[in-house]
Amino acid sequence: MSTVTLPRWHWGDAHAPRRALLVHGLGSSAQTTWRLSEGLAEQGWSATAVDLRGHGDAPRASRYRIDDFAGDLLGTRHDDGRAWDLVVGHSIGAAAAMQAAGTDADFTRRLVLLDPALTLDPAARQAVLDGQLANFDGATVESIAEQFPHWHPLDVEFRVRAVKAASRYALERSVLDNDDWDCTSYVAHVTAPTLVIAADPAHGSMFAGEHAAEVLAANPLFEHVVVPGAGHSVHRDAPEATLQHLLEWLHAAETP
Hints:
Helices cover 41% and strands 13% of the residues.
């Protein structure tokens, strides 16, 4: 597995004592994390977001397995060798972050998964592929705003910019290279306290039902909250509620 160096975007004081890494989902970019990154920065965190391989300004590569995304994330640790104090990932970015945490206990001290895509069956993978390629070929500010009228204007703008900045090949191979899309075997190996902030099952959550129950049963460090009314992009559908769940969980962990 050949890793690549991921470009970084930053919010807050770079020298803040608490450091967070934010990881976007498929067809997105570091900029699409802006609401959570800004929210953490306002709470005194140093928040860093990365463009995944094949996305935004990141290097392009020949392979896009979740293993590859996870390997790239493991390469983001600071030169001082310290683990991230917090890693937040969405969708495939959450799957890669979870796999990285399950591979190396020194990757992060805490982990937050936003409607993680930990396992997808063939029908779900095809739906993801169709949606990503349709967006790449035809997404406009007008079409995204019509599809998600409740999104902040910047979320609409960044969604369009992100999908256009991604490699079409990367979007396609991120699905096709993961024909065995299932990283749940890493769940039991995660040693960092983990919060799953899931979408509403009635709105297309990727973390629901029997799958969610099995993941939560596999590791007692995993906690779970659902954001009512939010779809898969919980941080864009319900940014205030998502940030509140995140901050309350962090506060509870820091309170004696």
